Amino acid sequence: MALVYEIDGVRPVVDPSAYVHPTAVLIGDAIVGPEVYVGPGASMRGDFGRLILEKGSNLQDNCVMHGFPEGETVVEEDGHIGHGAVLHGCVVKRNALVGMNSVVMDGAVIGEESIVGAMAFVRAGQVFEPRSLIVGMPARRIRAVTDAEIEWKGGGTRDYQNLVGRCLRTMKAVEPLTEFDPDRPRVPVQSTRPLYKVKKA
């Protein structure tokens, strides 16, 4: 199980159907809902405000969730938070994606089915309408998200929802092999293709 800490009598909550990597850190008022994936090195530091991951969402490797006292940082159902992103006192609405190494600040709202591009900086208090494609530093809406992009995003989120089950069933700590086997098998999984490849097809 993850590194889980109570503070001031408040203890994290993890639904039994969720998967939280053993190197993730959950402190205080952190709530992990059903079928959620929390990746290696992720930090949910609920020592000030409440942090919520709703059903089927994911918080990938080295992400950070934090917020101000009495506030909430929320990833709604099927939210998808890419590697290294920082969420601070914001709301990521249902089925939205926050790209790798993006920062979403206090009071910001990412609308339903929106996509925040990698390395975007969403300023405090910015509110984006549903299905916004959001990019840049500072972030801005450049157009509506297409049906094809929403379908692609959904496939990626389903990959992470399936990963929850794979991790619960098969992930275990082991000693590494000492040499490479040329007949080494690949991880047996089919997943969504990168968006740039989907667009070229």
TrEMBL record:
Protein's recorded name: Phenylacetic acid degradation protein PaaY
Identify the domain of life: Bacteria
Recorded hits in InterPro entries, A to Z, give: Hexapep (IPR001451), Transf_Hexapept/Carb_Anhydrase (IPR050484), Trimer_LpxA-like_sf (IPR011004)
Under Gene3D superfamilies, the record lists: Hexapeptide repeat proteins
